[in-house]
Structure formats: C-alpha cells, structure tokens
C-alpha cells in the first residue's frame, strides 16, 4: 500500500474529485489522501493510477501504472489551460477547465485523456462538476442542476436513462451507472444505468454476487454518494452514517455500522471513508481494499465560500492562507448516549458534548488521559509526515527523471507504430481484393446428396448458428458440411455474417493445425461450408463426454493437442498480417483428425486485428462464457491477448478435465478454482484424477510448468499475458519433458509423429511477423511483401519462431539453449519452463 500526503476535500475513485482517492485493479489497491503540505487541490483515482490537481499550475498530475494514461501531466494539454476539477474513470481522466473569460462563463470545456477518450469537449452551459464512470463521463449543469452524459453508452446506457426534470445537488459515477443526490429537502439518492445483471449477463448467485440493482437506493436524504463497479454508498443526512446498496461480492466486509463519515471514495469492489470518530483516519470496506491506513487525512477539499449552516470549518486542515479558503465539514448530528450538548455547532467548531453528571466522576480522569497523550502523538505524526514528504519527493524526482528519459525514447518508437498502423490500413483493402481463391463452389444438390438429405443420422454436431453433417462426395472424399440454421431473422443475419467471415478467412489461411475449408455453397437462403472431416470429433467431446468407442487421451496426447492448437493460434496471431483474432477458442472448437492431431476450427467470430498489437480494437464482446477475456468483456478492447486468455482456460480444462464453467462444483469457474490452487503450489489438486499420473518426476514437473503457463495466460490484464509464440515454445518444452527428452543415442522422432505436421505447406514461405517487418522495410514495401503471405503459410517450426521472436527485439537466447533474463512477460514464461538441456535442445531442433 502507498500513502501519499498532500494538502487538503470529498468524493473520488470511480466518480469525482475528493480529499481521498483509491486506485484499484489487478496491480492491487492504493489509497491516497490529502494531508498537510498544499501540493494538490484534490485527488481522483482509476484502474492502477491516481491523479491530483496541482496547486501551483491547476493542472492534473497522474502517477501509478496504466497503459492508457500518460503519467505526469497528461498530454496533450491545451496551452495555459487551468482546471477546476478532475475525475478519473477506469482508464481515462477528464478535467473541467476554469472558464477563460468572463463573457464565456456560459460554456464548459472538458478535456479528457486515456482509452478512447482523448478529446476536448465544449458544452453550452456551465458545469458545476463532472464525474467519470468506466467508459463515460457526466457533467452537472450549474444553472438547472440537470445532468448530461457522454461517452460509450453501450455498456452503461447512462445517457439514455438520465432522469429528466430532476434537480441534483451532486453526482458521482460508478462503473456502469451514475448516482445523484437531489437538491432541496428531497435529498434522496437516485442511480441510473446498467446493473451488473443487465450489463454482464452474469448469473448473480453463481458468480457470488448478492444484493439488488444500484437503482434500489434507500429513500433517505443523503449528504453525498459514491459509486463503485456495481455498488454505491451514501452518507445519510440524519446521522452521517454510511449506507451501501447495489451488488456486492459475497464475503465482502460490511461498512462500519456506527461511525459517522465525512468523505468517501469508491474503488471497483470496495469503498473507503474518512471518519471523525477515528480521528479522521480512513477505513475501507468491501473486497480487496487497502488494509491499514495509518494516518489521518483531510476530511474535505478547500473551498473559498464560507461554511454554510450545518457545517463548520475544520481547523486542522491547512488550505493556502492567502487564498482565504477552508475545509468545511458537516456538524455532528447529536451527542452520544451518556453525554449532553455543552456547546452547539458554530462556524469554527463542531458541537461539544460532555459527559452526564451521573457518570462524570470516574470518566473525567479518563478524558484527561487521552488529552495528555495528544501532544506526543501530534509531534510523532508531524515527524512522520515530514519524513514521508521528504521520501515521497525524492521518489517523485527519480520517477520523473526516469519517465522523461522514457518519453524521449518512446517518441522515436511512436514513429514506428504509425508506420505499422499504415500497414493495417493498406493491407485491409488488399485483403478485400484478394477474395476467395482456394475454396471450391458446390451446388446445394451435391451437398444434399452427400449428406443423405441432411439426415439426422449424418448430423455430427450443432453450434449456435449451424448444424454440422458428415457427408461423402461423389469422388469418395469424406467431408463435414456446416449448414447455417435459418430460423429467427436475427439468427439469419448473424449466421450470414459468420458464414462470410469464416469463408473469407479460411480460404486464405493455411496451416497444419487449422481446419481446412474445402468449399462452400450459397444458394437462395442456404449457406453451407464444406470442411475436411475430423473423424475424432472435438476435444470437448473427448474431455467431457468420453466419445463412444473413443480412446481415453493420456497426458502425452493431451499436451500434444495443446501444443498443436497453440501452433494454430500462434500462426493466426504472428504469421498472418494483419493478425487474425479468433475470439472463440474453446475445447469444442479444437477438432481431432483421424491421426489424433488437433485443428483449430470455427472462424465465424474471427476478426482482423490491428497490425500493431498495442492498439486494441474496440469490439462488442462475443465468444463463449467461461472462455471470454474479462478485459475484453468489461472494456470492449480486443487484442490477440484475448485469444491467449481463452487458450489459458483451455489449458486448465486439458489439465483438470473440468469444463470452463462446471456447475457440478461449488466454484464453478475453472479460472477461479484452479489459479489459487496452482499459485499455492498444489498443482496435483488441479490435475485430472481419471488419468494415471506421469511415471517419471520429469513428467510431473512438465505438468506443473504447463499449469503455470495457464495461470499466466489467464491474467486479468492482457499486456501481462504472454504472447502465443511464447506459450507455444513453453508447451513444446513441457511436452519434450513429459515424453522424457531423448538422449543423443535415441532415435529422433519424426515431426509428424510428435505433432502431426505431415501437412507442412511449402508454397509462399514467409514466416515474418508484422512487427518484424516494420523494423526493416518501409510501410509500402512491407504491405506488398506481406500480401502473398495470406495465401499460404508454412506450419511454423520452433526454430523459425525463435528466429522471428529474436528479431522482435525480445530475443531470449533460446537458440543457444540459454534463457536470458528480461522484463518481457513472454520471457518470463520461457524462464518458468526452464532452459532446455543440451539433449532437449537437440530434440526440439529436430522435432519442432
Ligand atoms: N469438420 C468437422 N468434422 C467433424 N466434426 C465437426 C466438424 N466441424 C464441427 N464438428 C462438430 O460439430 C460441432 C459444432 O460445431 P460448430 O462449429 O458449428 O459449433 P460450436 O463451435 O460447437 O458452437 P458455437 O457455434 O456455438 O460456438 C463441433 O463441436 C464438432 O463436434
């Protein structure tokens, strides 16, 4: 936990600017609070980062870790712009500008930075305040107290659901909703937007959520309100106690029952508050909050207006003396039981309570005791604060210098990125022009005959939008015919889209471990795709339904299938340009041919990814529950790392024999169940008990390493997952271990025996990846060079992959059998799997 000290005000995290802020997310939680020192006017925090509004420049300054937020002062910033307020969403920050000229006071300028948000906005009418949600923002108009929201409405619907004809005193956004406190005597909280259930389509009981939608705010007047991911909390006007509503995760800590709160901030699944009853020391509740916050913080922001009725000026909070500003906190509501009001709340002090005469005797000495302890405590706090400010300043200096150095080198690399984007733009039209080259056309009649009139007996499978039939063509070729289901009109549209995507992609891709498309038929309303027939069905059937008459796959076969599937996906990501993102990697899409080799199938949802994997596509989530990358379904950004997540789930499925979502178990989500066990070192508990454990210790070690690779693939953040080529290399190594890496005297197994790569294609050889070419040729040359690679691609051998990876600047020295330490996540996976022994290196060199 990090504690930052600043000068002195009241709601933040997701939401608005306050005297306290939290950052949340995968990297853990961080609490920041304004104390003494006058460095910031207020704080706000998002996913992995916190920003403060600097006192001297009135500009935002961010720190922490978020790839979409430029740390330091966000850029670009309009010249001489000064800001009144800042507010952070998950991956962006917005700031409300100070009105430049008096005559333009009826306009609001809001500048935003970060994921999909970097823009300046001008609104007619002056905003009193702004608030940022996950992927949207809202402003509260000063004059009519109405709310206006903008941004991505698909996941939150806040824009369309904003209440009309309602006056708000204050607003605060949560993840996918906004709450406001009414103006005047009706100070009830009203929340609108998407609830957890509507937004995520998650099953609340099974996913461990309890509670009701956030629009179920209690009907009591509130002082303020904050929003978390799916919950909101408010401070009740009647007694200043905290009340929370909406969804919360089971087993999360409830808010303090009796304490009165002054300021609050919400993280994703937790909330923190400042409590006068605890000497202004913050307390947090919920799930995953920062523990042990040792110091008192300011209970509010500095304001220039005098404290209104019901508020008093908090003496300990230091605002700039020259500014004439102050921190106003609400007067306490009543004296506790056993005490009486000795003096009422005044503009400078809270109401004073004294003990009742009957209990006064013994308690008066008790009261003196804490007073005598107060001085040493105050001195200790000041010394601690001083030391802290010194060390924070020193760290900030080092950090800023380090960042400046990095920015200058990033400037150079950005030029390269722009060139690689040019590749994507250039390549797409060419892709369109290429059209279907290899697929053969069939007549409906031909396929009807081949499948015995699409009889029930010849049906081998059924998907969401299609049925699959086994058929025999006139020349005796056994094929699988996928026929789109044409029931509901919505399905027709979807299946038609999937048909064309699959047809388009498969007719261009060619790899030993991708399912081969032989032809298609589009006649009237019928759309049919013809594939090679996969005699051994899908991996899903083998793992979960023990195919009729099918043999049980042992560990070597399972891992071989994992390696082959990984190679197929690696080809899609690294050797096609632009990369193809499959979007639906799962065990029912890994088909098994006659020789028990794996083929990745079902490209209906696939998309052409950006040539530069650093700039994600903004796509509405599609895929299969349990395999879906959480980053993709929450934030809608899609990269090849979404396939890596799904592949990680597949690996866990292969290791455990459990389904991705298996309702037979208490913890039905495979990731939630397996990852903690693997991290705790109990890999054996995850392994499928129906298989005989590997005989040798090396085999057990290989499975352990695969489990670790799976854990890395299912990391919450895409950028922290390894790339597919790293995953493949790691799995190949594990397979070699599992098989007992041969000594030099042993015969080397031919590739096709190990990986079934007898279908290696020899034409149009090019194994360069997009990123590789960007470093060597200019954009135009590169596109011309890349285009033919769509037509055919070789099955990629490890030795080729190693060369390409090294030229990416991520060289790991594997060719020499030595893993060089580095900061790249992929390298980390290679390290996990360990350097190859000389025998293994030889084995790998000959077999992969
Ligand atoms: N080429 C093939 N050879 C043999 N069986 C196949 C072939 N293609 C598909 N199948 C079988 O048909 C089933 C359905 O395949 P399909 O791709 O239509 O849907 P799915 O991927 O299982 O589900 P969804 O479309 O909902 O993602 C597969 O799980 C598999 O068992």
Characterization of the model:
The protein is an alpha+beta fold. It is built from 18 helices and 41 strands. Strands 30-34-35-33-32-31 form a six-stranded mixed β-sheet, sandwiched between helices. Strands 2-22-23-24 form a four-stranded mixed β-sheet, with no helix packed on it. A hairpin with a 2-residue loop joins β34 (517-523) and β35. The structure holds adenosine-5'-triphosphate. Adenosine-5'-triphosphate (ATP) is lined by residues 460-466, 468, 480, 482, 515, 531, 533-534, 537-538, 584, 588-589, 591, 601-602. It is found in: Cell membrane; Endosome, Multivesicular body membrane. The chain crosses the membrane at residues 375-400.
Count of individual beta strands = 41
Instruction: Name the overall outline.
Output: elongated
pLDDT average, as an integer? Answer: 73
Q: Gyration radius, to the nearest Å?
A: 31 Å
Assess the beta-strand content as a share of residues. Answer: 15-25%
In short:
It is a single-pass type I membrane protein. With 848 residues, the chain is α+β, with helices and mostly antiparallel strands.
Helices and strands, with pairings:
Layout: E1 5-6, E2 11-13, E3 20-23, E4 30-34, E5 40-45, E6 49-54, E7 60-64, E8 83-88, E9 92-97, E10 107-114, E11 119-124, E12 127-132, E13 136-141, E14 147-151, H1 158-161, E15 168-173, E16 177-182, E17 189-193, H2 196-200, E18 209-211, E19 222-227, E20 231-236, E21 242-249, E22 263-266, E23 270-275, E24 281-286, E25 302-303, E26 311-313, E27 326-330, E28 339-343, E29 352-355, H3 357-434, E30 440-441, H4 444-450, E31 459-462, E32 466-472, E33 478-484, H5 489-506, E34 517-523, E35 526-532, H6 539-545, H7 555-575, E36 580-581, E37 590-592, E38 598-600, E39 607-608, E40 617-618, H8 630-635, E41 637-638, H9 640-656, H10 670-679, H11 697-713, H12 724-738, H13 751-755, H14 770-774, H15 779-786, H16 798-810, H17 825-833, H18 838-847
Parallel strand pairs: 1-4, 2-22, 30-34
Antiparallel strand pairs: 3-4, 5-6, 6-7, 8-9, 9-10, 10-11, 12-13, 13-14, 15-16, 16-17, 18-21, 19-20, 20-21, 22-23, 23-24, 25-27, 26-27, 28-29, 31-32, 32-33, 33-35, 34-35, 36-39, 37-38, 40-41
Helix pairs in contact: 3-15, 7-9, 7-12, 9-11, 10-11, 11-12, 12-17
The structure holds adenosine-5'-triphosphate (ATP).
